[in-house]
Specification:
This protein is an alpha/beta fold and 260 residues long. Helices cover 14% and strands 35% of the residues. Strands 10, 11, 13, 15, 16 and 17 form a 6-stranded mixed β-sheet that branches.
């Protein structure tokens, strides 16, 4: 709870306020704020509502600068008015899934869901407030968990909140492919050790890879493994490298090359 945000909202004329943060490449798949051309009101746009051909525009985090943190402030009197008038009807989104997330060949299903943040377009008076990134450190995918488990953050003793480690200006952008989609895959990759990311700005991993002990990534690093067999990245520091582990690692593959 931030008393400053609470005070600002309580003293305002708005019935609904959404906390938002600046989008980065890590957030391009998430819902972002937009303006309805017909009503000139704020609305929340989710990836499930976006046509495939429009995805490049949806993911443009320079044009669509703010994403929803899911921290929402609502005045009870205002929401009661909408409920009494039967006007709190959120758009339904369709997501295509499989019954067994571990098996893409299992029965396909359609998941119906609504986003609470979509209510921003339904309140007569709504607004958004930009907040510090540290108020939003979600773990939606294993790539988020990797950053959280690494040495990028620490727990602040005074209030037990997360904060960036001293000397870390921003969390790195991490992109892991479907070989890290499930928790079991993520845990197996870090069974020996969690890599250091505090001096890393970009990490991309394509293919089944495990981390050896005391692995440190610095700058921009990309790791690829194209043969489908899991290989372990040995201990050491990797700075601005393109690492091809296809065929079993450096002994049988091209090895590290400069990556920028």
């Amino acid at each position: 709870m931030d008393p400053g945000i609470l005070s600002r909202f309580a003293d305002s004329e708005h019935g609904f306020m959404m906390e938002v943060c600046n989008r980065t490449a890590m957030d391009k798949k998430g819902g972002h704020l937009a303006v309805d051309a017909a009503t000139n009101k704020l609305l929340l746009r989710e990836v499930a509502q976006c046509h495939t051909k429009d995805m490049p525009y949806f993911e443009n985090y320079v044009k669509h600068r703010y994403f929803n943190t899911n921290n929402l402030w609502i005045k009870l009197n205002d929401i009661k008015k909408l409920l009494d008038a039967d006007q709190l009807k959120l758009p339904v989104m369709v997501n295509h899934k499989t019954v067994d997330p571990k098996d893409k060949r299992s029965t396909r299903v359609e998941q119906l869901e609504v986003a609470m943040g979509a209510a921003i377009s339904l309140f007569p008076t709504s607004t958004a407030v930009e907040v510090n990134r540290l108020r939003f450190i979600p773990v939606k995918k294993c790539q988020d968990l990797l950053v959280l488990r690494s040495d990028v953050y620490r727990i602040r003793a005074a209030d037990h909140h997360l904060e960036l480690m001293p000397g870390v200006e921003a969390a790195p952008v991490v992109s892991l492919d479907d070989n890290f989609k499930l928790m079991s895959q993520c845990d197996a990759s870090m069974a020996v050790g969690v890599p250091s990311l505090r001096n890393c700005t970009l990490l991309v991993i394509n293919g089944p890879v495990k981390f050896g002990p005391a692995v440190k990534f610095l700058g921009k690093v990309k790791v690829v493994n194209r043969d489908g067999k899991t290989h372990t990245l040995p201990f050491g520091e990797y700075t601005n490298k393109l690492i091809d582990m296809t065929g079993g690692g450096f002994a049988n593959g091209p090895g590290p090359k400069k990556f920028s």
